[in-house]
């Protein structure tokens, strides 16, 4: 699809400049949710409270507290509270969440008992349910989106691993998603393999389907090639409105776009950097003594090869995690 021809398409190149104030921008901090992938859903309440307070004080728009995982699939003996994000667990941290910060949870397609575990909105402190789906799971994801919408939630559809999706399939998926109840459609660089030129083309493509249907675009980037921040900024300039980030880049494998970098870039007076730095200093930096995440050579290699990072994560948890050559030889076989 060529977005460089014609005046109509040229008008879609940018949504303001990088200095332009855009009231549509929303920062969604998913430190606890994405970070839980490295801790099996376990976090001390002190850390979750620290991130929550930082988001409130920093003026962040949304905080994602965790997953809505199915207890039929994930054992409560093996996974912590934030794999399931029960109402009681969330309220233990936020009470009634009286401020402006909105709360979200993620529900994976085919891994969530959404009819029972996601309460009607009037019974929940959550505001947004984000449904994550691979392209072959879209029929299930659409039913989940409708169910959550009908329960009163704001909804998003996070289409994962698009770097391995064929163009024709992606176009068909976007056409379908544009007609769904989802308010936000997310571009997700699951493998951290996308470059800025690809982000440019994809954002324009997403907008061409989403905007006529009144949908909003979001971006969720991984840092395998140290491009999560740059790609988030690229997507922002070209029209993405919902921007995912995590404090200290905490997240699966190579991690995500750091919240502190994004707030510093935006220079918007409604966001405040100091509370995020306080959270980093008091909670996230000490966590590195127990949990390893962030850019490293194995994650770089899976990003360059457009592979799922599961093998790199396994390698980084092994006794020979600094033997990069053996990992390289293994994945190149």
How would you describe this protein?
The longest helix is centred in the middle third of the chain and has 15 residues, at 196-210. Helix 12 (297-304) packs parallel to helix 14 (324-331). The chain has 2 domains: 7-287, Aldolase class I (TIM Barrel, Alpha-Beta Barrel); 297-331, no CATH class. It has 333 residues and is α/β, with parallel strands linked by helices. An 8-stranded parallel beta barrel has the order 1-2-3-4-5-6-7-8, surrounded by 4 helices. The chain is built from 14 helices and 8 strands.
Write the layout of secondary structure elements.
Layout: H1 7-10, E1 26-29, H2 31-35, H3 45-58, E2 62-67, H4 87-94, E3 102-108, H5 114-117, E4 128-133, H6 138-150, E5 154-159, H7 167-178, E6 184-189, H8 196-210, E7 216-221, H9 228-237, E8 242-245, H10 259-266, H11 274-287, H12 297-304, H13 310-316, H14 324-331
Parallel strand pairs: 1-2, 1-8, 2-3, 3-4, 4-5, 5-6, 6-7, 7-8
Helix pairs in contact: 3-11, 7-8, 8-9, 12-13, 12-14
CATH-wise, what's the superfamily of the largest domain? Aldolase class I
- Biggest beta-sheet profile: 8 strands, parallel, barrel
CATH class of the largest domain: Alpha Beta
The total of beta strands comes to 8
Helix content: 25-40%
Our count of domains comes out at 2
Low-confidence stretches: 1-11
If classified by CATH, what would the architecture of the largest domain be? Alpha-Beta Barrel
Radius of gyration from the alpha-carbon trace, in angstroms: 19 Å
């Amino acid at each position: 699809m060529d977005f460089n021809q014609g005046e109509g398409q040229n008008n879609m190149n940018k949504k303001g400049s990088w200095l332009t104030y855009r009231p549509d921008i929303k920062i969604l901090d998913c430190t606890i949710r994405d970070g839980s992938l490295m801790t099996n859903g376990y976090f001390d309440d002190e850390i979750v409270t620290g991130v929550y307070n930082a988001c409130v004080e920093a003026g962040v728009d949304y905080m994602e507290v965790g997953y809505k995982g199915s207890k039929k699939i994930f054992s409560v003996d093996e996974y912590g509270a934030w794999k399931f994000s029960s109402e009681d667990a969330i309220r233990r941290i936020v009470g009634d969440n009286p401020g402006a910060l909105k709360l979200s949870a993620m529900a994976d397609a085919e891994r969530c008992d959404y009819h029972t575990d996601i309460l009607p909105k009037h019974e929940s402190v959550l505001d947004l349910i984000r449904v994550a789906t691979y392209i072959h799971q879209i029929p299930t994801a659409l039913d989940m989106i409708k169910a959550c919408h009908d329960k009163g939630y704001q909804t998003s559809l996070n289409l994962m691993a698009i770097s391995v999706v064929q163009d024709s399939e992606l176009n068909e998926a976007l056409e379908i998603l544009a007609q769904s109840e989802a308010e936000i459609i997310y571009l997700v660089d699951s493998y951290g393999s996308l470059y800025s030129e690809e982000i440019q083309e994809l954002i324009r493509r997403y907008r061409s389907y989403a905007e006529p249907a009144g949908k909003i675009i979001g971006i969720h980037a991984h840092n395998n090639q140290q491009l999560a921040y740059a790609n988030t900024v690229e997507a922002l300039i070209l029209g993405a409105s919902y921007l995912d980030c995590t404090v200290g880049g905490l997240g699966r494998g190579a991690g995500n776009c750091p919240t502190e970098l994004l707030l510093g870039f935006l220079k918007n007076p409604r966001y405040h950097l100091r509370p995020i730095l306080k959270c980093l200093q008091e909670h996230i930096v000490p966590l590195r003594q127990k949990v390893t995440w962030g850019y490293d050579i194995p994650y770089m290699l899976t990003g360059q090869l457009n592979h799922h990072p599961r093998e790199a994560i396994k390698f980084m948890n092994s006794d020979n995690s600094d033997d990069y050559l053996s990992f390289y030889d293994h994945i190149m076989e």
